[in-house]
Design brief:
With about 300 residues, the chain is an alpha+beta fold. It has 2 domains: about 100 residues, Arc Repressor Mutant, subunit A; about 170 residues, Multidrug-efflux Transporter 1 Regulator Bmrr, Chain A (Alpha-Beta Barrel), CATH 3.20.80. The protein contains 11 helices and 9 strands. Strands 1, 2, 3, 4, 5, 6, 7, 8 and 9 form a 9-stranded antiparallel beta sheet that branches. Helix 8 packs across helix 11. The radius of gyration is 21 Å and the shape is globular. The relative contact order is 0.12. Pfam families: HTH_18. Keywords: DNA-binding, Transcription, Transcription regulation. This is AraC-like DNA-binding protein.
């Protein structure tokens, strides 16, 4: 049941690794060991979009990031991503983002970038992951202290959600929100990792948040449907597991870290929890960073 989810995820990985090259369904299918027709059919069945459309949306989104982050000419970026002319690139860009590439390069604004698809996730396939638990050798969660300066957080705070899964099940559009925040990644608070989730506390109730931390001097536009809040400086206890294989070990790693994070007594390190105005953060970048839960603390007098 899960084999094709994993195979389509490999297709997604292949596409993203070759966006600036001429995409070839035949070449990809040969590397994966299946016919082009079968690859194309399974991709559409599992993602709800054609492989061709996915490639197009990812190319135009990657091109947008280069417009934002480099001084490359619009024409050069258009050619790099396979557009026949600057005019063709402009038409495609306006269709996707309702702004010309030249205008966006001059004055970037939040736009709904197409994010990398995820069709095989242990969030969705916990049964298979539980079956593999006996073969996983986890590292214990390490604990360290990290200072995060005063900053702004742009995102969504949902009082009725307590987890990543329930947050997206509450009607928030994952692709749209993640794509919009990805277009703002150049404003990420220095030292932080970009899009961040976590928990907040309001009127005695715990909710879930998703967004991006930015510097206090950020005064740019706030995407529709999001808020911007100022978060005070604080020390955080960081409960951390180093990089791991997402497809194999994600659920087990998260449980290992969270079991420690939610049951730890900070007094053993001379601290007490300082949640309230401040909020907990959840960093989830399996292959590059690992997984961590951050809880704000203050020194015990």
């Amino acid at each position: 049941m899960y084999e094709w989810n994993e195979m389509v995820q490999l297709m997604v990985d292949w596409v993203d690794a070759n966006l600036s090259e001429t995409q070839s369904l035949l070449k990809m299918s040969e590397q994966l060991g299946y016919s082009p027709y079968y690859c194309s059919r399974q991709f559409s069945e599992l993602t709800g979009m054609t492989l061709r459309d996915y490639i197009w949306t990812r190319k135009i989104s990657r091109a947008a990031l280069e417009l934002r982050d480099t001084d490359e000419r619009v024409l050069d970026i258009a050619v790099k991503y396979g557009f026949s002319s600057q005019e063709a690139f402009t038409r495609a860009f306006v269709k996707a983002f309702q702004i010309t590439p030249a205008a966006f390069q001059k004055e970037p604004r939040p736009i709904p970038l197409a994010i990398r698809l995820e069709v095989f996730s242990p969030y969705h396939y916990l049964i298979k992951e539980r079956d593999k638990m006996s073969n996983i050798h986890l590292q214990p969660a390490t604990i360290k202290v990290e200072f995060i300066p005063k900053h702004k957080f742009i995102g969504i705070w949902d009082k009725s959600a307590q987890s990543y899964g329930s947050f997206w099940e509450n009607g928030h559009n994952c692709d749209e929100i993640s794509g919009m925040l990805e277009s703002m990644s150049n404003h990420t608070l220095p030292g932080q990792l970009g899009q961040t989730a976590g928990w907040f506390y309001q009127d005695g109730q715990k909710g879930y948040l998703y967004g991006i931390p930015v510097s206090t001097d950020y005064d740019g536009p706030i995407p529709v449907g999001m808020e911007c809040k100022v978060i005070p400086e604080s020390e955080y206890l960081v409960f951390f597991h180093p990089p791991f294989d997402y497809l194999k070990d994600n659920g087990a790693v998260m449980r290992t870290v969270e079991d420690v994070a939610w049951n730890f007594d900070p007094r053993s390190m001379g601290y007490e929890w300082d949640e309230g105005v401040k909020q907990d953060y959840q960093r989830h970048f399996p292959e590059g960073y690992g997984y961590a839960v951050l809880r704000p603390v203050t020194k015990i007098d």
